[in-house]
Amino acid sequence: MSRQIAFVFDLNKCIGCQTCSVACKVLWHQEEPGADEQWWCSVNTIPGRGTPRDWEAMGGGYDAQGKVVLGKNPTPEEFGSRSGSAYNWKEVHTSAEHVRFQPVDGEAEWAMNWDEDEGAGEFPNAYFYYMPRICNHCTKPACLEACPTQALYKRDDFGVVLRDEDRCEGNQACARACPYKKIYFNKVREIGQHCIGCFPRMEKNVAPACVRQCPGRAVFVGYRDEENSPVHKLVDQWEVALPHHPEFNTEPNVFYVPPLAPFRVAPDGTIEEGERRIPLDLLETEFGPRVGDAIGTLEKEMARRRNGEPSELMDTLIGYRWEEFLGPFTAEPADIDWRTS
Ligand code: SF4
Ligand code: SF4
Ligand code: SF4
Q1: Which of 21, 51, 210, 253 to mutate to test the pocket of ligand 3 (most atoms within 8 A of CB)?
Q2: Is residue 107 very low, low, confident or very high in pLDDT (cuts 50, 70, 90)?
Q3: Helices (H), the chain
Q4: How far, in Å, is the centroid of ligand 2 from the Cα of 232?
Q5: What percent of the chain is modeled with pLDDT above 90?
Q6: What are the structural domains of the chain?
Q7: Model confidence at 242: pLDDT above 80
Q8: Residue nearest to atom 3 of ligand 1 (CA)
Q9: pLDDT greater than 60 at residue 84
Q10: How far is the CA of 216 from the centre of ligand 1 (A)?
C-alpha cells in the first residue's frame, strides 16, 4: 500500500537552536566525503534572505500548465561556501583574546545563516521567526520529473523522495527544478544529494533524527492518512498546519503551524489588541491565503484554554504526550541493532 509521511513544524515552538540541523549533519555527513557544506536541515530567520541566499526567487516547481520549470541552480557561494578558504578555527578556540570567526584570506561576505536573528521592524515592534527547512518529499516532486537519468524515485511505503546514486550523473537538473533549493551538489562524488527522510531509521520504527532530537518538541512526523495522528489532525482536520509556498505546485509534505507574534505596542505604550507584529501579508507570501484562517483557529482555541475549557488542538501542540510527535516511529534508537538490515 502506498503511504505518505508528513512533517509538521510548529513555528511557535521552534527556538532556532539548530539541534535538528546538527542532528542531521552528525548522522549523515560525518563519513560522507564532499558533504561538509551540505545542510539537509537548515533553520533560517524570517524575514531574511535564506539558504541558499534569495532562494525564493530562483524558480522551479510547476507552471500553471503543469509543466516542470527549470529554475536556477544555486552557486556554492549562494549556499555560503567560500570554496577553498580555510578559517581561523585554531585562533578562535585557543586565543586569550576575543577573535572573530573569519576566513584566513579575507573578510566573509555571506555564509549559512549570515542574517540570523536580524529580522525586520523597529523597536518595540521588531519581529522575526525561525523557519526549519528540509526536503518536502513532495507528492509531485519536480526534481524527480526533471532528472534525465531517472535517478530519483519516490518510495511507496514512506513516500520519501530518494536517489539511486549509481544512476545519478550529476547534471543537476534536479537542483534547478526543486523550487525549495534543497538539493546539494557533492563535488567529490559528482552527484546531487538531499535529505533522505531518515528512511533507514523509519524502517526500524525510529523517528527521523531532526524530529527525535528537537528539544522544543516543535516537530511532528507521521502518516498523513492516519486519522488519529497529530499530523493528520493538524493538517487535514484543524487546518492549522500549512505547506510552504504552495504556489510552487509540488504538493509538499512538510507543513508549518504559522507563528503568532505578540500584539503591536503603540507609541504611548498601550497594546494594540488584534494587531500582531508579524505582518499578515508576509505570512500569506510564505504560506498562502489560508494562513489568516489558521491563525484565527489558533487564537480561538487559545482563548478556550484561557477560559478553562478543553482544547484538543492546544493539548496536541503543547505536547503533553511526547510520543505523539514521533507518529508510529517510537522505537528507542539505543535499543536497535543497526548492523542488521
Ligand atoms: Fe527549531 Fe526544534 Fe530545530 Fe531547535 S531542533 S531549531 S527548536 S525545529
Ligand atoms: Fe524534490 Fe525539492 Fe520537493 Fe524535495 S523539496 S521532493 S528536492 S522538489
Ligand atoms: Fe536530515 Fe533525516 Fe531530518 Fe532529513 S529527515 S533533514 S535526513 S534528520
Answers
A1: 210
A2: confident
A3: 19-29, 76-79, 89-94, 142-146, 173-177, 199-202, 209-212, 230-232, 280-287, 291-306, 312-318
A4: 21
A5: 84
A6: 5-325 (3.30.70.20)
A7: yes
A8: 20
A9: no
A10: 6
